[in-house]
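Quick one, T. Sequence first:
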Amino acid sequence: MRSAYSCLFVLAIPLILLRLLWRSIKAPAYRSRWNERFACYSRTVSPVDIWCHAVSVGEAEALFPLIRQIQQKQSGCRILVTTTTPTGSARVQAVLQKTVEHVYLPYDTPYSVKRFFCAFKPRIAVIMETEIWPNLFSYCGLFGIPLYVVNARLSEKSMRGYQKIPAIIRPALSQIALISAQTQADADRFVAIGASPLTVQTLGNIKFDVEIPQSIIDQSKQIKQQLFSGRFVWLAASTHQGEEAALLKVYQQLKPQLPDLLLVIVPRHPERFGEVAKLCQQNKLNIITRTSKQATAANTDILLVDTMGELKMFYAAADAAFVGGSLVPTGGHNVLEAAAVGAPVLFGPFMHNFKDIADRIVEQKAAILCQNEAALAEALLDLYEKPAYRQELVAKGKQFIEQNQGTLNRIYAILETAITKLPGQENWPN
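Structure tokens:
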């Protein structure tokens, strides 16, 4: 069955490349470094000890603390980080810089995967969250590379999809040394699609071990003082298409009651910066961009953050933070970063990608679930009028995070044991 899968994947490559071209119209980075997606490298690469994969920005952010811990405790350990998206790539390069090797993950064809492994010769593999690639996993087994899927999550929808192709999925899962699941429900779903119960453990969610450098807090105070001029700052973070229009309606509804209200929008995808700016202008709202380096004036309605890597800082500077991807059926985004820096957190009803966290943070009264635009407007008005309530949300949010920390150390302890037993690289084919 893997041979049939490989044939279909190869046949689909022209369509995949066309999709990259289409996406590159708005995000030119999708047009570059195609050679890496076929494991053909324009520079000389060196063998590494550990290969880590994070699909995009969210997975990369969760991976960074683990990589830093490995670097601190395993001096000289050579690490390769792969991503799939240009935004993930940019974040890896910005945060980790030259301390790691970085390329795109190759397409899951036998020849590309084999070239990838023979180029970097990793001795251990760490994959974040949900990626299951049959050829990639098979070659881990073929080359004797211990494979760890950490912070693993699997939705009901994905589980049902995988259950339709057991002849492909079960052999791939058999190559995994350990699946570190976020929740027991995730663990049960991995077993349901064919993972051995002996390889599945529920270790928690590494995203609770979020890192907030003091520099972020210091910069946020500076921004609040110099850029926001005493405004009440409502941050809309990681927003998606269809969401900004709803948020602008809420802003226009609230503005007569809250004259000092400022809406700061951070779209999830950089290619949508222009689209969101145009939408604000069409609504006759006074907008400035982050890249313009202007301070907000009394008549500024919207600050559009058209940069990458500054979200934590803006969370820390906000009086209320709405986490996007949740008013539209995208599945939501990580709310823990906002809570960790001390922002009162709000989100919409579509949080199925973070269901466990969303359910528990609302149960602890540490965040506000807004079922629709009207509820969001009501919640924002409440936060504006009740500073003590804002502080209560902040305190409960931080407490919620502290109570669930420790997964990073549990995962590292397992990897540390594996690292000390790493096989050599002498038997790799050229």
